[in-house]
What does this fold into?
Amino acid sequence: MGKTNRNQKPGQTNPSESPFLKIAIAIIGAIGLIIVALINRSTATLPAEFTQTAEARHTLNAMTAQSNLSAPISSPNQTQVTSVTETSSATPAVSATSTNIPSLTPVIANTIFEDDFINNGNGWFVAAGYPNIVAGKYTHKVSCLSSNPSLYCASYVVAIPFKFPRNFRIEIDTKILELSPGGKVDIGFQVRKNQNGYYQFHYFTSDSSYQLDFISDKGNQLNIIPATKTDLINNDLETKNSFGVEINDSTLIPIVNGQELNRIEDGSLSNAGGAYITIFTSRETNATVQITNISVQEVP
It folds into this structure.
């Protein structure tokens, strides 16, 4: 039996036994049971959902890392033409959670001179007819008379309008548009040219060969690299060939279509000197030669 309040008057109901209070307590208890059930259900499903989210993030980070590591690096010749390009670097973006992925820092070579021959803003040698500079092409029509005593004529020796440092890498893009039957063309460079002599690099397009000579101040010729065949030179007309030279202290490197050839050590000329583009043609030969781009990079 329930206890009776001493202050309760006869026939008066105990407030604690009010039906409304009992209903309220029952409702609160039911709500509490529902909340507990929901919490238990959420707790049971959370680990599976968390695992799926973690796997998805792991996969995304792995894809981001692979994308960053396989991103193409700009090559040194991918700089904008007719402009000076300073040394720069770029670091691919890496996800903040991918702490174990190493950063890649490609170094772009320092291009100190470049010309695409859109105009003659650099003051190249031109004439009333040829050579001329029009629409991105520096065109030369060259010939060697039958009366020439040598097998080849130096049809053009063109000074490059730029003051060269001691160590550099130079490359030009060329095409031969026309050539007499049986004729031969030699496109090359004279570098470190001063009062003591110069180095002459030859690239014989018709013969797919190259050669390096040292010419003294007295005109004596010393053959450093004899005429050497290479399948890197394409001898088809209207086909681009890129020819170049790298000079680093006493190291001399011929370059054909981006590929370095023989490395030669010769310290006969140590000063910077001037640099020239040369076009030689064989006796009784007429040819049309175009240069479409020149790039000079500093060598540390």
